[in-house]
Design goal:
The chain is an alpha/beta fold. 36% of the residues lie in helices and 21% in strands.
Length: 238
């Protein structure tokens, strides 16, 4: 049976209460978060950035982004209400700095060209239509903005065993894209200057980064109804 959003919602609802305490926080989430933040900082040019984290879960990564980039304005979007609810204390702690939103990665509830950086860490293999999700991330990026997308690296024998055998046994028919598939997804969505780096750790992951071109036609069609980003919600003076 193909993996779908109902299955993803059921799984993450079930996992939400123990999510922050799971071994994956140490094994892969922490290292991958640090790698993504390093890339954001390296290209920030000391500007205040508007950042969207897709698949934000309980907000652990958004809080880490804010710690590393205290001037950044951060939004988090997640499909599963239980994950957002589990992070309620964290959202309150970040009030005025981070705005959580419930939404679908394939229909992001934001206007075109809203963000300088879009991140997606450790959740992409749960997205049924991965190409559409990448195109949506591209749509909400400003010209010159960057998508930094990380997921398990399944191209080595060890990675294949972890992600295509062990993870798939637990999570169902999720799909960890290969290095080549990630490049194809980014290219099809119109990204330029694509960079890929595999991190070989006990649980290997691959970081994929692409730059939105300086000029391009609008990518959304009539099936999208993106809402404007509520900047006032992140303005401490508002």
């Amino acid at each position: 049976m193909d993996y779908d959003k109902d299955q993803a919602t059921a799984e993450f609802t079930r996992w939400s209460e123990s999510y922050d305490r799971g071994i994956l926080q140490w094994l892969i989430f922490g290292p991958s978060h640090r790698a993504i933040i390093k890339r954001i900082v390296a290209n920030s040019q000391s500007r205040r950035l508007d950042i969207l984290d897709v698949g934000c879960g309980t907000g652990i990564f958004t809080e880490r982004i804010r710690t590393a980039l205290p001037e950044a304005r951060v939004w988090g979007v997640d499909l599963v209400s239980a994950m957002l609810e589990q992070g309620a204390t964290r959202w309150r702690r970040q009030a005025g700095k981070v705005q959580p939103v419930q939404g679908d990665s394939e229909r992001l509830p934001f206007a075109d060209a809203s963000f300088d950086v879009v991140t997606c860490a450790n959740s992409f293999h749960h997205y049924p239509n991965q190409q559409r999700a990448v195109c949506e991330m591209r749509r909400v990026l400003r010209p010159g903005g960057r998508l930094i997308l990380e997921d398990g690296y399944r191209d080595s024998l060890w990675g294949w065993f972890i992600f295509d055998v062990c993870v798939a046994t637990v999570e169902g028919a999720v799909h960890h894209a290969s290095r080549r598939r990630f490049r194809d997804l980014f290219t099809h969505a119109g990204f330029e200057s694509i960079v890929q780096k595999a991190h070989h750790r006990p649980a290997p992951f691959i970081l994929n980064e692409g730059v939105a071109p300086a000029t391009s036609p609008a990518l959304h069609g009539p099936h999208f109804a993106p809402a404007a980003v509520d900047e006032d919600a992140l303005d401490p003076a508002a």
